[in-house]
Amino acid sequence: TFYVWFEVPSGYTSASFAGLLLEKAGIVATPGNGFGDPGEGYVRMALTVSKERIAEAVNRIAETGF
User: Fold this and answer.
1) Residue 43: beta bridge partners?
2) How many angstroms separate the CA atoms of 8 and 14, rounded?
3) Looking at residue 44, what is its pLDDT?
4) Hey, which residues does 7 pair with through a beta bridge?
5) Residue 45, CA distances (Å) to 7, 10, 15, 33 in order
6) Which residues lie below 8 Å from residue 8, measured CB to CB, with a gap of 6+?
7) pLDDT band at 1 (very low <50, low <70, confident <90, very high)
8) Could you give the C-alpha distances from 13 to 6, 34, 52, in angstroms and in order?
């Protein structure tokens, strides 16, 4: 599986941002803190769907204002 990691916006923990993505955009992301202290401040997403679904997810994130 391929994954993408990205930094969470200022003011959020990895867990709080992952929760917000789920609540506001319907997107599941894994909080980086689940991978130890170096993962805090990041979320991880699996790239296991079509390019079209990935583009949809990116658009949903953008629409939430992040």
Assistant:
1) 6, 31
2) 6
3) 97
4) 42
5) 12, 19, 13, 13
6) 14, 17, 41, 42, 43
7) confident
8) 12, 12, 28
